[in-house]
């Protein structure tokens, strides 16, 4: 019987534990922040100096997802072409002294995250040094509010207790701030300066204060690695400054990984740059194609509830990318917002996990190799109207691709192969990990194969010892997870349980690949079908449209090895190994490259060693050929197994 699923005593797995998920508390933190903007009525913008000129007879109406508001012209003072956003990192000197290990982990990860965001987003650059605003309600005790007076809305009396401006508890240096003054008489322009104007921060479009500390929020929940908020905006509501608190525990924990921390910083950066429910009403639709001027109009109301009760974000580029991703022409296919962390307004600053699993802006971040900087998120950043987005750097969002507009709803989740049921064992949908069918608080009862933390990564060679005995598993950088019940013919157990197994793979085309089991040759594995392997009983199921389809998917070890080879400059491998690695490990989207110079002597040594290595490999190949017979493969016509396997004011340090 195809994939006969008998549970066998003796093939019990070692304890499996789900991976730790990181929790984001952005909405909670942002809600506690008062955002400071330029004073009312003052023509001042720290970013795009804009001014709306809407005629009385053609006002810009409030809009919904069904009605685009009429265009309201905005005149731009500077027509400088958009440039990659310049994010300046400022580490206050009052930050606690870090250990050498903490320092080695902190800034390289933050700098890498900032570099990635700068490669994705462009803005019209600030023409002069960036100057932040002071909160008049803090430094002023009394404001002239009579509109007929000369000094309307200016400070009439100073607050003697005023000391400084802060951002999420971080003190903003006076040199970053505009000056402030008191106008003692409502009708006379004579003023008394309280604080002089600072020099500002040159060549900066967004200023991020990074403060590392063990705060109460960090200690409250172990899943919080960092949190952030924007605290300053320009006259158009565009964020120009924010703070990020790095939980110090993050930098010293045993399970720390550079890739995970980089993604955490990117996630928080997207929040402070505008991916915030508090800013949805500020988003604008802008055209940057005309040199004569920039035209923008408000999107109006960009959120609405669909017929299923799901709150969605509706903006032009988001709708287009959702339709493209799900292969649907449904006119109201907005991107769903998470319902489990929604506030009293029903809104969230995260995507709905059931529909956009694996997105960088989902509420929970998991294993770095499973997180994608996806086109839906970049579409949202584009629709803010403040950025020009480089979509060529978007990463494939595999989850739900082509599944139609109802994908991910609670009522239909069990009908999709991306979901699972019955708490069985299988493969995560990207096939880097073995998985177990589980749910969580964000899935509303739906279940998915989640990667497990107990040596379930197929791409880790060191996990080889944890493999299922007699199943022919091979762990390594080119190994992927396959649903299988394979077991050796001479194995004591007569039948193995159906579960995820790790086998080598190499691509032979788009959605075409071969696999290798222990002691077998490379075997064609037709997508959507199952195969037998000589010397084994049972079958291996070959997933369709998951493996060898996305050129930007690779496990962390593949990316790290590529970086190591580039940095080392030379490598000695057989031609077969090079071919296998090239075919099984596509080049990821985000890879840092460096130039390498190799001396003539190094080339000669490498050549000699290569010849020696080639002869050694040839001799070994002859011995292996004499010893082993080739394996046979039989392709079954069944498109899927009968059980439906689910495939799955102090001195500061500036960072330039």
TrEMBL record:
- Mind telling me which SUPFAM superfamilies this protein's record contains? Metalloproteases ('zincins'), catalytic domain (SSF55486)
* Region span, Disordered: 46-70, 637-656
Keyword Signal set for record = yes
Q: Which Pfam families match?
A: Peptidase_M8
Q: Where in the cell is it found?
A: Membrane
The Swiss-Prot or TrEMBL record describes its family as follows: Belongs to the peptidase M8 family.
PANTHER family annotated for this entry? Answer: CILIATED LEFT-RIGHT ORGANIZER METALLOPEPTIDASE, LEISHMANOLYSIN-LIKE PEPTIDASE
**Listed transmembrane segments:** 603-625
Co-factor note (free text): Binds 1 zinc ion per subunit.
Q: Where is the active site?
A: 268
Cite the entry's keywords alphabetically.
Hydrolase, Membrane, Metal-binding, Metalloprotease, Protease, Signal, Transmembrane, Transmembrane helix, Zinc
Q: Provide the residue positions that the database annotates as binding Zn(2+).
A: 267, 271, 350
What cellular component GO annotations does this protein have? cytoplasm; membrane
Any one GO MF term held by the record is: metal ion binding
Q: Point out the gene that encodes the protein.
A: cirop
Its recorded name reads Leishmanolysin-like peptidase
Tell me how this protein sits in the membrane: Single-pass type I membrane protein
For the protein in the UniProt heading, the enzyme class is hydrolase
Q: How far does the signal peptide extend, from start to end residue?
A: 1-22
EC annotation from Swiss-Prot or TrEMBL? 3.4.24.-
Which cofactor is recorded for it? Zn(2+)
* GO aspect biological process, one term: cell adhesion
Say yes or no: keyword Cell cycle present.
no
């Amino acid at each position: 019987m195809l994939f006969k699923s008998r549970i066998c005593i003796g093939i019990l797995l070692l304890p499996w534990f789900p991976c730790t998920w990181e929790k984001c508390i952005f909405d909670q933190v942002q809600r506690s922040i008062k955002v400071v903007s330029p004073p009312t009525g003052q023509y001042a913008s720290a970013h795009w100096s804009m001014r709306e000129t809407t005629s009385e007879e053609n006002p810009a109406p409030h809009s919904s997802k069904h009605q685009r508001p009429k265009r309201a012209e905005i005149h731009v003072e500077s027509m400088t072409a958009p440039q990659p956003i310049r994010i300046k990192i400022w580490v206050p000197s009052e930050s606690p002294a870090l250990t050498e290990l903490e320092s080695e982990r902190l800034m390289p990860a933050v700098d890498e995250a900032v570099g990635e965001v700068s490669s994705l987003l462009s803005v019209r650059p600030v023409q002069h040094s960036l100057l932040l605003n002071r909160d008049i309600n803090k430094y002023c005790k009394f404001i002239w509010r009579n509109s007929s007076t000369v000094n309307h809305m200016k400070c009439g009396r100073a607050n003697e207790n005023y000391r400084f401006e802060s951002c999420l508890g971080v003190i903003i240096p006076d040199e970053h701030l505009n000056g402030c003054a008191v106008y003692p008489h409502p009708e006379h322009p004579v003023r008394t300066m309280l604080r002089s104007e600072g020099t500002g921060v040159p060549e900066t479009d967004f200023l991020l204060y990074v403060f590392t500390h063990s705060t109460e929020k960090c200690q409250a929940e172990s899943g919080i690695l960092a949190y952030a908020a924007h605290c300053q905006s320009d006259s158009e509501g565009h964020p120009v400054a924010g703070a990020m608190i790095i939980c110090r525990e993050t930098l010293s924990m045993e399970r720390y990984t550079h890739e995970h921390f980089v993604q955490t910083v990117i996630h928080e950066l997207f929040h402070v740059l505008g991916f915030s429910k508090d800013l949805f009403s500020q988003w604008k639709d802008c055209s940057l194609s005309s040199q004569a001027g920039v035209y923008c109009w408000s999107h109006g109301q960009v959120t609405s509830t669909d017929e299923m009760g799901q709150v969605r974000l509706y903006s032009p580029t988001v709708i287009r990318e959702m339709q493209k991703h799900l292969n649907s022409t449904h006119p109201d296919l907005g991107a769903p917002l998470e319902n489990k962390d929604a506030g009293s307004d029903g809104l969230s600053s995260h995507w709905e996990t059931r529909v956009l699993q694996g997105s960088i802006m989902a509420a929970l971040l998991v294993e770095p190799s499973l997180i994608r900087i996806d086109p839906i998120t970049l579409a949202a950043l584009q629709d803010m109207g403040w950025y020009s987005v480089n979509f060529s750097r978007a990463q494939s969002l595999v989850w739900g691709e082509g599944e139609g507009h109802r994908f991910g709803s609670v009522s239909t989740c069990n009908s999709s192969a991306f979901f699972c049921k019955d708490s069985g064992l299988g493969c995560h949908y990207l096939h880097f990990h073995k998985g177990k069918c589980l749910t969580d608080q964000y899935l509303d009862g739906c279940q998915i194969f989640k990667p497990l933390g107990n040596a379930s990564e197929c791409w880790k060679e060191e996990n080889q010892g944890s493999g299922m005995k007699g199943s022919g598993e091979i762990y390594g950088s080119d190994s992927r997870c396959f649903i299988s019940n394979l077991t050796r013919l001479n194995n004591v157990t007569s039948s193995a349980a159906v579960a995820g197994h790790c086998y080598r793979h190499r691509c032979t085309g788009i959605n075409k690949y071969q696999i290798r089991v222990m002691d077998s040759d490379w075997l064609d594995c037709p997508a959507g079908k199952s195969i037998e392997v000589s010397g084994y009983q049972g079958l291996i199921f070959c997933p369709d449209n998951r493996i060898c389809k996305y050129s930007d998917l690779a496990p962390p070890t593949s990316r790290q090895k590529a970086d190591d080879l580039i940095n080392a400059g030379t490598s000695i491998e057989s031609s077969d190994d090079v071919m296998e690695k090239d075919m099984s490990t596509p080049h990821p989207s985000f890879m840092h490259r460096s130039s390498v110079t190799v001396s003539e002597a190094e080339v000669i040594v490498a050549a000699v060693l290569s010849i020696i290595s080639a002869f050694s490999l040839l001799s070994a190949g002859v011995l292996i050929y004499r010893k082993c017979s080739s394996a046979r493969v039989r392709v079954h016509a069944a498109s899927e197994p009968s059980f439906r396997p689910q495939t799955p004011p102090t001195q500061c340090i500036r960072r330039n």
